[in-house]
Amino acid sequence: MRIAVIGGGPAGLFFAILMKRRDPAHRIRVVERNRPDDTFGWGVVFSDETLGNIAEADPPTYAEITRAFAHWTDIDIHYCGEVVSSTGHGFSGLARKRLLGILQRRAAALGVELRFEHEATSLDEFRDADLVIAADGVNSRMRDLHAAAFAPEIDWRPNRFIWLGTTRRFSAFTFLFKENEHGLWRVHAYRFDEAHSTFIVETTEASWRRAGLDGADEDRSVAYCERLFAAELDGHKLLKNRSIWRRFPTVRNARWSHGNIVLLGDAAHTAHFSIGSGTKLAMEDAAALAHALGAEAGVPAALAAYEAERRPQVESTQRAAEASLRWFEETERYFGRLEPIQFAASLLTRSLRLTHADLARRDPRFTRRLDRWFAAGAARQSGRDVPAEPAPPPMFTPFRLRGLVLGNRVVVSPMCMYSAEEGLPNDWHLVHLGSRAVGGAGLVMTEMTDIAADARITPGCAGLWNDEQARAWKRIVDFVHDRTAAKIGIQLAHAGRKGSTRRMWEGIDEPLDDGNWPLIAPSPIPYLAHSQVPKPMDRADMEKVRDDFVRAARLAETAGFDLLEIHFAHGYLLSSFLTPLANRRADAYGGSLENRMRFPLEVFDAVRAAWPPAKPISVRISATDWVPGGFDAGDAVAVARRLKAHGCDIIDVSAGQTVAETQPVYGRLFQTPFADRIRHEAAMPTMAVGNISTYADVNSILVAGRADLCVLARVHLFDPYWTRHAAAAQGYELAWPDPYCAMRRYQPRGP
Predict the structure, then answer these.
(1) pTM given for the model
(2) Range of the structural domain that residue 310 is part of
(3) What positions carry a catalytic annotation?
């Protein structure tokens, strides 16, 4: 096979090496615009896992790298006059020039043709190639020549950074956070050989401009950074190498191949340097593409197989990188507000991939210190005694909301069962909620419970608009209180324009075939194009809905619920007032966010006045519509602040489902960042929800300060006893109900 590789970086060179190893008969030419020793940057980072992948793909390359790298296991975090250290992380630094030299020599030894200082401006000179590898970096000329086919998207991130070197040998991967009159500055520093370290300085656009660096050359920029970090550099100088202030580009492409051209490495995708993934992704791309070409018959099939295998892995890494880069873009949110140990936990788990359990395995001492700190704070907040050593897992610490103290931080999410008749809960609801209360959760939430017959989503939805329903709910509440340690809350709602639809398994959001009831909404906009058009609410409608909420709240108190939640999310009635995509009113209830909040706040105030002062109220919101021009995370913070001022105790932070055209960004813990932002910027407690599925996730969210409670849905459907099983897995003793006392001596066996 004749292969042309455009770009002599790690992706292109490693691919050439692997293909030559597979078949020495391949004719491979690598074309690079720069000299062999001319490269931007200082050091690259490999995790132990990445090095293992390189060792499997090409042992000689691995051997050369390991002879040259600087290895460390510690991370040092310099924050507010303290240094917090964590160990067991396993990374290696290597000079970028050294890596390129290793790959160049290995490629040449295998017979790869290397041509440097040659600019490939078109594909004309590669017409005889069976395969063309576009590995020419972020600013790929080959990709841009075929932009219509690849459909590249480049997201230029707002922060500014400058890539420097230094003769200061850092003994650990070091994060420095320093504030001066211009703002907050972050440094990512790591040693990459016996005499040098990489020293990346990052800050916000505003701080960069206040410092006058928007017009600075390399020398002025270096001088500023040397003055700022003089103490940390300890007399050492900073070194420059085309060191200009940049913004990071997150690159994505709709397609990675076109004809016989395939994108590799940064030309196809990038992931922020804060997780050290650029070179890792590039070399793993090379290995995956080489494997696909060896396994598939023909280039088209191989390129399709390569993308099908690699894209999910890359996109997963990009999601982690985006969470990490956003943490560094928003560090001002945490700086000076979090205590050093929690700031360190937040930083270490910033990508949402490294968990509390991972930290416990890597650095038990650090994690024990973190857990003790968290347990002491929970005891102070709840008015409980500080637990004896060892500290409990964070998820098994108490939490207070007004007069309500939860025994742990696990919440069973509101999950519609669509199993009521005329709104009346029955034995299904008793078993569903009761079993999860026995299962150990600190708080069990009812499904969305509607305040009137015409407020339901479906004919099977539960309700609370009459005494009979209140008595049925009281039966369930009494079971939870009498037989378990759990508390129970009720979520009250009005379906609005999403009402009068089929049960979930019959066709979610689809209108009923018959038996429909009239719908109301802020504006006459149907949820789906073929949905019923709702009546735009007048003042009489608003007063009726407000009074229905108050009636339901009073009935909930009669039933004995511990907590009440009002549903402002997921496109139901009150949510529809908040989003400008569903609220097109021209009166005092539409337009500005302040106006759009007017009616939901009126409902909240009326319910708060009717609900006992000692009992807490939460509000569930959709923190974003996930549609351009819609309700966004900044709006969510503003709503939370207003709710706090009106007496709301905690925000239950969900996202999306507000409009049919929503485009959510799914992933692990994908809604947690919204809870994190609201918690810190609105300075109020939050519940996190959304793809939280392990106890490691729960503990991680809590110790990092991203939320105060964790709300889990599907895991509780799969395992009603999830909380008890999580306790057992962590060696924590969670008291069993007396009828299950035999469990105290039971040791489950494996398969």
Answers:
(1) 0.94
(2) 1-68+92-150+254-336
(3) 572
